[in-house]
């Protein structure tokens, strides 16, 4: 319906005046590259893509959307895994890739101000010679944008010790859905007024667009040691993780890979660090002062041994350390070799529930008849089961999505969460009622309306809607592919 | 005006049915004790005080307020320093002191669930035998309530390393201003949906009342060492603080006391730790594993010496350590001996601006002719200048408030904040425009309306209103004392 009344020609002209012809994409064959993010099973083209370069341009673009009441979706590098940057069929996609400037490096106060299109690793690169680093490190860090990290509150392998993105964002310049520009947070850790930084980070583009982001950077640890322990069972590895935390040690990261993942990784990258017959390997990174790290590593080794580790190795040099990590970082890619497709789930559970939940996932795997490789941020209880399937076989995608849903429900049942670090986006909105009561969701919805009364900022994401939930999750996509208008 | 139309008799009956006669206070001579919190220069009596015991009772009480559209204010122990719990002349004061149960101790997952009236130190007491502690430690910790800590996002001397209250609240049961009950946050560090925990903590009672609070507790550090360094100038102490952080060391706390404070403390508690001729003393607490603490202390000592410390002492045993802290903890009380009254200010500045700001405070002190004792959380840049005056002398309170205001504006000018840990409350709302633009404040106000569309939850606090700002800050109080109705 909207297509009949929305004056796209006038809108295109208005947007071109703001960003110039080089900042506009409208031809369908060019829009193609923007039709999905990392959740490639959902695809749709926006009407227009704009690539602004400044806060002022974003504000003007958003004012045009507000004026015509058309949806806008922000997109960074498009590496998100929950479809948060899936375009709106009748909307504008605002891409931040030309907003790629590091605006300020303040070494004295350990902060860096960036535009949202700056790539995650560039932040560390900007300060590494000064002995500083930016802690959040999603696996996609060499390509993902800081703006996208803010939208999804991204984590990484080191978030056990250092926290997720929200713990490192000090302040933001935000273009509200009205086009007004506000400053939220401050360079100080705590300020007066409502903590809008916490609300904004992780709001998945539904409250506005961050156009300048002040990040905290930390002193590079004096020493880093990586330990690799192998266990005959994944349970023993899981209990070890709890025991290390209980001993008062917070490693920078603790990652578990199961036997299926180990063999996939060894097939592909041949690290030769991971014993192929292990039930699980546990990778532990300990960092800090040179005076404390060897002592901590020693205690970690003892705890591993007490839990029956067959072997615990400390990487002898940087090369070996990187090799140990290489396997973990290649795990998703390696899973691609095990099967034509895989579906990554992202759930969180209390650490102490790890052994039980892994058993249940195993039972679900057998019940549904799909193999599941387990690779996860064990310290945080953040699971990433990789369900292996073949999209070419009719029915498999749907079955695997159902299986993934059962895993999420299991996480909620043990007091966990339906998302650890990938967000809700398009993918998981139907699971929100598993975690939140109607009153909880209504409170969040009314907060959203406070920011966005016209509901034009990334609509149809995060919140469950009767239109899409309760039907098959993909019906919207299939209808769109069939050319059916969805309004 | 409202007094003529509000059916207080019916309201009293309804509230008595909910909480019982023993949970209601309406006689003026009994209401007297509730007429102010720790900011005793603002005083007014509520119409009714209710003391509920459960979430259900709070929800029912709030529903009555919602039904009659009358304001309610929540109060814990009443130790707040910004007038956040100042009652509303035409409202209900909801006091949480009977909600004093520790509801759950979950050692495995290191969390404790409490009612809001539980006293801060009780949390640590509930887990201390298990080697755990609750980190936020306001100076009033033996009397202040966890509910009040949540409302004001309280800090303490250890928040440099451990963060403030918001970093330790995992989840909340909240009675909204409608009387609806929602769950926000979760026992997990990060969950999906908007981060309402961050918004709620520090919202000073304007978004609802927390009735169950899930707190994170931490393993007690294996070793604690306290160092006391004395300097001939406060500047040297301030530069030392920055240098310690720059060296990658995060002590549990770093506190500075100036010469005036040192002498006041020695007069009163005679610790004999603080040299009376020092320009400033710097107290540093280092904690962690037994393997790292002595090494860290050594490095801290070196940095102190490099900055010209005359002497650096490490407390030899627990007795000496507590003695060193005793002086700092008695500083506010000791200031009471220097002068009939003192006015505590609470501002934050970037750590690197400490020397400049202390100089400027000194200049303001001379300009206004009032002595200022400086005692502060130096590691966080959180200043607590104590302005000494005599309330009995007409004009002194007003002059001192003006001087306090100048200090706040100074903090904002150097990139700081008008409040570190005491909140805005009644005291500082007129300074909010110093920090926030009209668009920033409007966004916060619209968030407030999303929670509280009738504006009955602690109204007239936090946000500047033309009615009270722009006039003398105390006119409302003086009018009230004169018996003038303020509606």
Automatic annotation (TrEMBL), chains A, B:
PROSITE patterns: FAD_PCMH. One of its GO terms (cellular component) is glycolate oxidase complex. It comes from the Bacteria. Its cofactor is FAD. GO terms for molecular function: (S)-2-hydroxy-acid oxidase activity; FAD binding; glycolate dehydrogenase activity. Its EC number is 1.1.99.14. InterPro entries: FAD-bd_oxidored_4_C, FAD-bd_PCMH, FAD-bd_PCMH-like_sf, FAD-bd_PCMH_sub2, FAD-linked_Oxase-like_C, FAD-linked_OxidoTrans_Type4, GlcD, Oxid_FAD_bind_N. Residues 42-220 form the FAD-binding PCMH-type domain. Keywords: FAD, Flavoprotein, Oxidoreductase. It holds the Pfam family FAD-oxidase_C. NCBIfam families: glcD (TIGR00387). This is Glycolate oxidase subunit GlcD.
């Amino acid at each position: 319906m909207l297509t009949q009344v929305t004056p796209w020609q006038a809108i295109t002209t208005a947007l071109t005046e703001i960003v110039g012809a080089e900042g506009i994409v409208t031809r369908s064959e060019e829009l193609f590259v923007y039709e999905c993010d990392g959740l490639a099973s959902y695809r749709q083209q926006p009407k227009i893509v704009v690539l602004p370069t400044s806060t002022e341009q974003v504000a003007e673009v958003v004012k045009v959307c507000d004026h015509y009441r058309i949806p806008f979706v922000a997109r960074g590098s498009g590496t998100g895994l929950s479809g948060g940057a899936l375009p709106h069929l009748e909307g504008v996609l605002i891409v931040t890739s030309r907003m790629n400037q590091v605006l300020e490096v303040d070494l004295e106060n350990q902060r860096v101000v960036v535009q949202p299109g700056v790539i995650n690793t560039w932040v560390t690169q900007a300060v590494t010679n000064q002995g500083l680093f930016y802690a959040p490190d999603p696996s996609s860090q060499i390509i993902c944008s800081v703006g996208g990290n803010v939208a999804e509150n991204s984590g990484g392998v080191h978030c056990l010790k250092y926290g997720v993105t929200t713990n490192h964002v000090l302040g933001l310049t935000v273009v509200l859905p009205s086009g007004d520009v506000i400053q939220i947070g401050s360079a100080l850790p705590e300020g007066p007024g409502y903590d809008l930084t916490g609300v904004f980070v992780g709001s998945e583009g539904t409250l506005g667009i961050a156009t300048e982001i002040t990040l905290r950077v930390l002193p590079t640890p004096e020493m880093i040691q990586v330990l690799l322990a192998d266990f005959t069972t994944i349970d023993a590895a899981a209990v070890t993780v709890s025991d290390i935390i209980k001993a008062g040690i917070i490693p920078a990261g603790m990652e578990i890979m199961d036997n299926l993942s180990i063999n996939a990784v060894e097939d592909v990258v041949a690290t030769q660090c991971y014993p192929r017959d292990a039930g699980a390997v546990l990778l532990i990174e300990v960092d800090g002062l040179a005076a404390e790290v060897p002592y901590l590593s020693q205690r970690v080794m003892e705890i591993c041994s007490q839990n029956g580790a067959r072997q615990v190795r400390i990487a002898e040099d940087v090369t070996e350390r990187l090799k140990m990590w290489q396997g973990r970082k290649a795990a998703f890619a390696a899973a691609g070799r095990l099967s034509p497709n895989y579906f990554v789930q992202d759930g969180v559970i209390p650490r102490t529930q790890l052994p039980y939940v892994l058993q249940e996932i195993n039972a679900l795997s057998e019940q549904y008849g799909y193999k599941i490789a387990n690779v996860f941020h064990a310290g945080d209880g953040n699971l990433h089961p990789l369900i292996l399937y073949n999209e070419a076989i009719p029915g498999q995608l749907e079955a695997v999505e159902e299986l993934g849903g059962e895993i999420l429900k299991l996480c909620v049942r043990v007091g966990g969460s339906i998302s650890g670090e990938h967000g809700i986006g398009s993918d998981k909105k139907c699971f929100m009622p598993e975690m939140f009561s109607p009153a909880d969701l209504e409170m969040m919805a009314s907060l959203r309306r406070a920011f966005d009364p016209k509901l034009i900022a990334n609509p149809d994401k995060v919140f469950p809607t009767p239109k899409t939930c309760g039907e098959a999750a993909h019906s919207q996509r299939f209808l769109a592919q069939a050319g059916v208008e969805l309004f």
